[in-house]
Amino acid sequence: MYEQNFPEIDEVVMVQVKSIAEMGAYVQLLEYDNIEGMILLSELTRRRIRSVSKLIKVGRIEPVMVLRVDKEKGYIDLSKRRVSPEDVRACEEKYNKSKMVHSILRHVAETTPSQSLVDLYECLGWPLYQIYGHAFEAFRLMVTDPESVFERVQLSGLTDDAVEEYVKTALLKDIRRRMTPQPLKIRADVELTCFEYDGVEHIRNALKSAENVTQDGCDVKVSLVASPLYVFTTQTADKEVGIQAIATAISSASDSIVHANGIINVKEHARVVSEKEDRLLAEKIEKIASEVTNESDSEDDTMGAADV
Known about the structure:
Layout: E1 12-20, E2 24-29, E3 35-40, E4 61-70, E5 75-79, H1 85-111, H2 117-132, H3 135-142, H4 146-156, H5 165-179, E6 184-193, H6 199-211, E7 214-215, E8 218-219, E9 221-226, E10 229-236, H7 239-259, E11 263-273, H8 275-307
Parallel strand pairs: 3-5
Antiparallel strand pairs: 1-2, 1-4, 2-3, 4-5, 6-10, 6-11, 7-8, 9-10
């Protein structure tokens, strides 16, 4: 929901296809209060087409470029074929940010008395768009420094209405709940071997040197999967810092094990892993540990029988 009722010419906007006709496709502009526009048949693709339905489907959300706007008649002509891959990425990013801002403001309006959604946009949302380029960037700053954002809005002169304290409280609660960065889990898979005398001790020393690495608050942990495979992990909100911490830990382990005539082999370099990947690794480690335990129990049973 933007302050302007209509988009600018050449602006790339997100639309949802509502129906398909002989002349083209009727759509709703999702960022502009669902006003209607049309993607002309000639603007669907650069290639010759036989069937419109193969190019565009009802219900699909598409980025399109604004060609003409008649504010008096409410006509908006749009183009799909003039949108570049760079335009698509930029439009999707902007749309997702705007959707997050709208969702937060709508929730605050619904949960605070005598405060409509339009009131919130007028006293806070639209001024933030003008000051920060996008209200999303201001919301991100509010996670750690809300007062500086509210102060800039007040000093900007873009609104005469101050934000009530109870509205600030509700807004900050929602912003922090939705926008506080979640820590990323970074992992690398590494093999360590050493066939020298006291090789196990040399490997243990190499792993200790890796775990002694701390970079910008990132502690590295090493876990055994199944000899000779180990995983180096860390958690951080900053992807680059986490990857660098793992790289430094691997370098430290490498120096230690190579000095002892051992070998290090990085099977997979540091990368962000999903919860699913993390869970699968934990299940794999648990399964291997269980198999080792069962084998040990089996050997004990056999030896016990032989003693009888």
